[in-house]
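Archive entry: two folds, one per protein. Generate the first.
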Amino acid sequence: MLTLVQMFSLREFPLDEQLDRIAKLGFDGVEGFFGNFDNPAGFRAKLDACGLTMPQAHVPLALMEDEFDKAVSIARTLGITTLIGPWLPPEERPTEATGWTALGRRLNALEGRLRALGLRLAWHNHDFELTPLADGQTGMDILLAQAPGMDWQADLGWVIRAGQDPLDWITRHGHRIIAVHLKDRAPAGTEAEGGWADLGHGITDYRPIFDALRRLPRLSAHVAEHDNPNDAARFLSRWKVAHERLVAYRPGQVFDGYAHAAVMCLDMEAQVAFYRDRLGMEEMFRMDLGGNRHITYMRLTNGQFFELFSWGQGARAAGESAPGYHHVCFEVSDLDATVAALRANGLRLCKWAEDGSGLYETDENPISTGADHNRQAWFRDPEGNRIELMEMARDCLQLQAAARMRVTL
């Protein structure tokens, strides 16, 4: 599933800075709009420099109908494969079924022209397409019926704002949905930012919606959008964190995953330096509990942390055979690269003694394969807390068990 950012959301902010931020946050690319079309080659160069793509874009209907060749040229230059009709000005919005039928036939003709060139056409809704007509239909229903080959980009924020049930629309037309815009409404009485809220910070419980989206056969892109954010960094970072949590959600599950692991420290600053300088974890924040008691959060991922407590006692962490929690494990995708990076940071890695009695530091290859078929390496922090690095194998026992449980990891 691609994660994209609709560039219209960032129209008031410096372009280069936002593209850099989008890339660093881990988005796959952007969804363009008319403001990106003045110099398609130049904009494509900026995307390429950031490692981003533009697989789809909002293209004005007038441009597609009246300057078809220009629209196609822009798409080819930017790498766009799906052109999305984004909006109709008030004076062009049909108010009865005959008008929506005529618009649907125009879109059907345009979809055929684009399909012949290997391109796709989709429609993006606002609230006006969802207003019931005299006969009970909506404009969106009519457009989808009159242009059967056209796809739909469902803006769920506007569905919610129109007072409609997103689950109903997803159920009835899910086979037509190829992308969704994900944003939320702010609580009643909140007028800032046009009444919109970042995903995960509004009034909607998006968990059942994400569960429904997970089953759509053709959905290929989740798009971050906010019609009028006053802080681009806040909008993008909040959206990314909320999206990761919602994607991981499964109905009925008791736990959502690890939130943090915590260790007691004898020397807080030395431990912070180790996890920052040796392991590359960013210090997120500190909580002062009074006296010399404080807690430091180190970032592992956006939703997982390593928590350091300052009031440890004794000389060192308990030995390998002591009862209680034994170690924390960090999953990595490339164990060889991780080991090389950590050694470059000055970290000494460890291996287990053959009799399992304890860890010892080694300059040899520290990587071994466990009984679960996963590759592993170990190290200790300065106060003796044991940490495992694990690269999961495709045939490992954990994934085999998850497959039997029909859980996607």
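Generate the second and append.
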Amino acid sequence: MDENNIVPEGYDPAVDVWTALSETKKPIIMYGMGDGAEKILAVMERYGIRPTDFMASDEFVRGHSFKGFRVKKLSEIEELYGDFVVVICFGTALPDVLERIDMIREKYETYAPDVPVVGDGLFDGDYISDHEFEIMQLKSLLSDEASRQCLDTLMRYRITGDIGTLRKCESPMQEMLDMMKIGTNETYVDLGAYTGDTVEDFLRYTGKRFNRIYALEPDRRNFSKLRRRLYYISSELLKAKNAAAWSSDTKLIFNNKAGRGSSMLTEQNAQSITGRGYEVDAVSVDSLLDGKPATLIKYDVEGSEREAIIGTEQTIKKYKPRLIVSLYHRAGDLVELPLLIHEINPDYRMYLRHHPYVPAWDTNLYCI
């Protein structure tokens, strides 16, 4: 990406993924069901785009129907339509599934449209135009050429939905973990600890030598699994809370809807709890640590990253912990979260990386 030009190289504003789908004469086949398909269909409806049919991997078909369509195997779709456009409606990092997607896109025009996990906005040409200054500022803050190229590639992918473009900027997570020089005396704060898998990754990486671990997980069932999974760590070394990471200590409504955005948090603004959500405690990291230091913090909190970062402001200013921040839940996270962290502590070196995943969900900021 040219230093004086925020537009990704090769980008034609007249031909983005939604324009391509609007103008195609081929049948549009949705690959996948569930919340991911719902979100993509909602955007397609705004553009007047109608799906022709739905398919799933052979092992998932099993008589399923979706949106009034009988979900079909690829072989059935091929027999019915011959040539067609495939729209990927799910996320995966599984090597065999990525291989299957690569096989499909070698034969057919294939897109993985970028729609946010949380919220309704899109990272499109309008977003780029409206945030030109912020994008240029972010580019100037990134600490290596690989990060700047990753930004350029991710912008191009988000506009075009082209999987080949996305996969060009994949890199192994181990590279960044090595650069962060994670040692054996860390105080690790895991925000969005899920069932304890990322805590166990940390334990493997450090050989189970560490100072202390703090783990926050708002989902009740996930938290129960976390406690069972990490039963062998004493409460003196592991402080686990069934709570959300937020900007202050408060109560939130946790939306436990299945699928993408299942952990979306909203501030409580009514006297009664309605719908499928339930009340959870929320805490700021500054409150959780109570003035004590942290050396490593991971943010993966399903769209609440901004609030969680604000709730870590004093810790970031005073102790400068290394940070791993998910940048893919909301449309603006890619640009806005790094700038927020820089505003809090301008001393960080910032690195942007995308790890193997379709769509661009496993995109992280690393602050050192």
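Annotation attached to the second fold: Residues 258-262, 268-275 have pLDDT under 50 and may be disordered. The radius of gyration is 21 Å.
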